[in-house]
Structure formats: C-alpha cells, structure tokens
Specification:
Blueprint (H helix, E strand, L loop, with lengths): L1 H35 L3 H15 L4 H13 L5 H21 L3 H4 L12 E4 L1 H9 L4 E5 L7 H8 L4 E5 L5 H15 L2 E3 L4 H10 L3 E5 L8 E5 L2 E5 L2 H9 L2 E10 L3 E6 L15 H18 L13
InterPro entries: LipA_acyltrans
Subcellular location: Cell inner membrane
Pfam family, one: Lip_A_acyltrans
C-alpha cells in the first residue's frame, strides 16, 4: 500500500513538473510573439530596458552578484550591481535576438558600407575554408555568441556546434528548431555527444563549443583565481585528432552593433610524450575566457553557477 502511494505521488509530481515546464514555456512563447510585433531594434532595446528593472529582483541576481564579488573582491557593492545590471541587459538582448537573427546578421564581406556586424579575422576564415583538415573552435557566453557559426557559414565554413539545451523540454525543442534553421548542424550536449563530435572531426569536419560552463566531472583548474571543474572534451578531441584549435568571440558595440573576432590557432601545451596536455589545455581555455570577461564583464553570464 505504501509503495503504491509513493508511486502515485511520484507520477503526480512528474506531471506537475511537466505542467510547470509547459506553463513557463507558454509565457516565454507569448513574450517572443509580442516582441515579433515590434521592429528588431525596438524589440531588443525594450527587452534590455525591462531586464535591467526585473533582473535584480530574480533569485539568479544573487548568484550573479555573489560570483562577481568573488571574481572582483576589490570592487564595491555599487560596482558589482552595475555589472550585474549590464549582464541582464546583455542576456535580454540575446533572448530577443533569437527571433531577429536574420535582421541582425547583415555582414557582407564585399559590402562597401559597414552594417551592424563587423568581423576581425577574415583572412583566417578564408584560409580555414580551404584547408582540408578538421578544426575546433571555441567561445564563451559573451555578447551574442550565436552569431559566430552564422558568420563562419558566410565564408563557406560549416561548423557543427555542441549545444546544451535548456532544462525546460518545451523551450528546448523550440530553441533547437530555431538554431537549426539559422545555425546549421547542432549536437545536443548529452550522452553520445562526444562520439558525434569525434565522428565529425574524423571525417575532416569542423566543430565548435562553449567552454565556460560548470562540468562536475571535469578536470581541476582555476577561473578568476578560484577552483573550478572544466570540461576536458575539447582538449581530448584535439589530442585524439591532432587538430588546430581557434578561439572566437562576439563583442557588443555601442549602437546595437557587434564585432566578431576569430583569432589565430592556439599553441596547445603538450606533455613529455608530445601529446596535448588535457589539464594544462583546460587551464589555457579558462585563462583566455577570463581575459575576455575582464575586458567586457557586463557581457558575460554571471548568473551561471560556474564556481558552485
């Protein structure tokens, strides 16, 4: 009898959780639908203004300010709050930009007049397009990182991106469909993802991934001088396929513009046997991301529990 009651409660709790996911998803879809009624620029600016007001009242704001205080112990409470509000501004823009990617991405390598997008590293894109070997690209949750694979495709460089779906399955399904439409091939971050990326590299393809998320089974490293666990996947793939690794990032500029930057390949640290050193490479990635974040702290996702 007790077992049946527990089973019944478990089933109801799952249904309640699914209903909660559905309810939140409908609210998100309604918000996106309303934003679609506005011109792209107006919708993005409106989202940013609202987020600056609402963001500090959410539970994630405390996570963000705690993270900022740990990363910048020298900053005052007012300075920490200012960066956190900038973060909400940037995250809200990212939310709205999902539905206006076609309007935002106006980069044309042959255009005479600059648009919303400017690109640093054009010769690198062109060179890699013609190389007959696999490459790994990495970035972080800075600016609108979603624009990077679109930019690569502009140069005829197809990149399969590793992507972590939202926990809400209804939102995840919608986001995955939108990203497939705009950004080409995607590999959801779940069991079997490493094998999928490995097969792409084995066939001479290109993969991209975000490297600034918490990974409980990761290798010990540091970020802003504090201990973290870092996903070793990129380093392991680079070691297995002996392929070049390239950093890339997006920076938000004044006036609703963006700068996409592709850097030259990294010299990865190697062990005595000449193989890529996984732990040292993980630390190198953290150091690069930390440099980016310190340069534009308000454009990084501080509410992520990177140190938790």
């Amino acid at each position: 009898m007790i077992f049946k009651l527990k089973l019944l409660l478990f089933r109801w709790s799952r249904k309640l959780k699914q209903f909660n996911y559905w309810l939140w998803a409908q609210a998100v879809f309604l918000a996106l639908g309303l934003l679609r009624l506005l011109p792209a620029r107006a919708a993005i600016e409106f989202s940013a203004r609202v987020a600056r007001i609402i963001g500090p009242w959410t539970s994630r704001h405390k996570v963000a300010t705690d993270n900022l205080a740990k990363a910048y112990p020298e900053k005052s409470t007012a300075e920490v709050e200012a960066i956190a509000r900038d973060m909400w501004d940037s995250m809200a823009r990212l939310f709205a930009e999902y539905i206006f990617l076609d309007a935002i991405f106006d980069f044309d390598p042959y255009a005479k007049e600059p648009g919303l997008i400017e690109v640093d590293g054009i010769p690198i894109f062109e060179r890699l397009r013609d190389e007959k070997k696999p490459h790994i690209f990495f970035t972080a949750h800075t600016g609108n990182f979603e624009l990077l694979p679109i930019c690569a495709a502009t140069f005829g460089l197809n990149v399969t991106a590793l992507f972590r779906p939202p926990n809400n399955p209804y939102i995840a399904d919608r986001v995955l469909k939108a990203r497939r439409t705009n950004m080409g091939h995607l590999v959801p971050s779940k069991a079997g993802a490493a094998w999928s990326l490995a097969s792409i590299l084995d066939e001479g393809g290109n993969v991209g991934m975000l490297v600034d998320q918490k990974f409980g089974r990761g290798v010990p490293s540091t970020f802003f001088g504090r201990p973290v666990k870092t996903n070793p996947l990129l380093a392991k793939l680079a070691r297995q396929f002996d392929c070049d690794v390239y950093p890339a990032r997006c920076i938000r500029l004044p006036g609703g513009r963006y700068r996409l930057e592709l850097y030259e390949r990294l010299e990865l640290p190697r062990n005595a046997a000449g193989e890529v050193d996984v732990a040292a490479t993980a630390q190198l990635l953290n150091d690069i991301v930390e440099k980016w974040v310190r340069e534009y702290p308000g454009q990084w996702m501080w509410f992520h529990k990177r140190w938790g």
